[in-house]
Amino acid sequence: MSVPPINASAPSPGEIVSAVSHPAREQLELACVLHALSDPMRLRIVAALADDGEMTCGGFGLPVSKSTCTHHFKVLREAGVIRQRVDGTTRLNSLRRDDLEARFPGLVAAVLSAAAAANRTLAPQLTGHSGPVA
Amino acid sequence: MSVPPINASAPSPGEIVSAVSHPAREQLELACVLHALSDPMRLRIVAALADDGEMTCGGFGLPVSKSTCTHHFKVLREAGVIRQRVDGTTRLNSLRRDDLEARFPGLVAAVLSAAAAANRTLAPQLTGHSGPVA
């Protein structure tokens, strides 16, 4: 699967200019976005950002190492799913909902809804199930 | 990302019993399904099956080798996106739309719509664009 070229997009008015680059809206690719979403930890990150807006990298409480966490944020950013901006010594993350909706209408809502539905459905059905659960 | 265990699901009445195994509906995992969909060739396969119902492996006209094609069908089948049944010397493929809809409502429709919209949007905008296009 190809990865889109990463170009710095123009900052919004008032946005802190940072060294973090992002693909522009028209560069987002469906396959890359789906790949970025195809991991349980990254789905948790996206769901948390959808609920809570802007969050620091350390604010998600993921059960993975810091380097793994950094990798997940990089995959999400390079696919155009999240935007990261530098504020002092931290990176603040937000979901690029408007860009994703403009390019792939309904996709993020369907994925978030599916993730929530899967969690609700799995909980009572898989009691005692020993297989992996997304 | 974990891969769900592959168990043979019970054949439907009238279905030809084959050696091809599939995850049961309740074993489908969102992350695995998204991963299966995160490839331009596999998106083409799924879109074709959504339009045309049951198709042989050779009926898609994909610009990839036979072994790559076989790999794509395997990924889609193991994730539970497609069902394959053996009919004589061929494998017939179909989209597991009902199972996917039951587990992840709206997801397949959103992905197919996003793929179609992306294709429509990219065509006029990216004339002369040299980067990869999903």
List keywords for this structure.
homodimer, 134 residues, mainly alpha, three-stranded antiparallel beta sheet, 5 helices, 3 strands, 46% helix, 10% strand, disordered C terminus
What is the tally of beta strands of chain A? 3
Largest interface, Cβ cutoff 8 Å: A-B, 38 and 38 residues
The residue fraction in helices of chain A comes out at 40-55%
- Per DSSP, what share of the residues of chain A sits in E-state strands of 2 or more residues? 5-15%
- Secondary-structure-based class of chain A equals mainly alpha
First-to-last CA distance of chain A: 22 Å
* H/I helix tally of chain A: 5
User: Low-confidence runs of chain A (pLDDT<50, min 5 residues)?
Assistant: 124-134
What is the oligomer described by this structure?
Answer: homodimer
For the biggest sheet of chain A, the summary is: 3 strands, antiparallel
